[in-house]
Design brief:
disordered N terminus; Glutaredoxin; single chain; five-stranded mixed beta sheet; alpha/beta; 5 strands; 11 helices; 2 domains
């Protein structure tokens, strides 16, 4: 299966945001400040509408009760260059990327008229919202990527493709064992990431669909409070006592 992978980038900002913003136009919404090149005038309103819609959908869908709202000057920033060339020149983003993100400072960098930008935006906003809520401690990569991939694909035909693939991999015993995926914190460049992303999606899908939003929200809240993965699973889902129990319940869910 050909899965479009959005690789996340933590970048050091060598460019002064305020300096760049002086050269652009600005559009403000309830939760976002968008600085954009004049050439992106017709594109920016759709970005604004999509960003606000996804912000609400992500926070409500995962039951993330937020103490600190994105408001006033603390709104998340989206910077839109006029084209790919200006994007690479001004934002120090990788040449292969169509968007890149500074998660800690909540800034998304991109350029106009990308076919899949709504999907990319949903994915990247999930990372920002999730990490701001849960904190920046090291955790298994599957949870971070599974959250974003679930938000991106849950309401698309890709969702059922993932489900069918995972069922087949379980039946053939070709999935990534949980003791291994729970100890994966990065993916080596050049690796085949399709299996990893599909399984990360399937693990979040299982927890969210099998137990519901409230229990999943309790799981995230436990992680936020400092519980390790096994403790958070046990507190939120009861029938899952540890990694082995997570794996066996996950397999049973897909083989039903």
């Amino acid at each position: 299966m050909n899965v479009r992978i959005v690789i996340l980038v933590f970048i050091s900002i060598f460019l002064s945001i305020s300096g760049y913003a002086q050269k652009t136009k600005e559009l403000r919404s309830e939760h976002f400040i968008i600085n954009y090149a004049p050439e992106a005038e017709g594109y920016v309103y759709k970005v604004k509408d999509d960003a606000e819609y996804f912000y609400r959908k992500i926070t409500q869908g995962f039951g993330l009760i937020r103490e600190k709202l994105w408001s006033w000057d603390d709104r998340t920033k989206i910077l839109i260059a006029k084209d790919k060339e200006e994007y690479l020149k001004n934002f120090s983003c990788p040449s292969w990327s169509s968007a890149c993100v500074d998660y800690r400072n909540r800034i998304i960098y991109t350029y106009p008229l990308q076919k899949d930008f709504a999907s990319i935006l949903k994915h990247e906003l999930t990372h920002i919202i999730f990490r701001e809520y849960i904190g920046y401690n090291v955790m298994p990569l599957w949870l971070d990527e599974g959250m974003a991939t679930y938000a991106e694909y849950r309401d698309t035909t890709q969702c059922q493709m993932f489900v069918a693939l995972i069922k087949k991999l379980i039946q053939e015993n070709k999935y990534i064992k949980f003791k291994d995926i729970n100890n994966t914190y990065s993916i080596a460049p050049g690796s085949d990431t399709s299996l990893f992303y599909a399984q990360a999606f399937s693990m979040v899908y299982f927890l969210k669909e099998r137990f519901g939003r409230d229990d999943f929200s309790e799981f995230l809240s436990a992680l936020r409070s400092g519980s390790n993965l096994d403790e958070a699973l046990r507190k939120a889902f009861r029938v899952i006592e540890n990694t082995e129990g997570f794996e066996s319940n996950w397999k049973r869910f897909y083989l039903m």
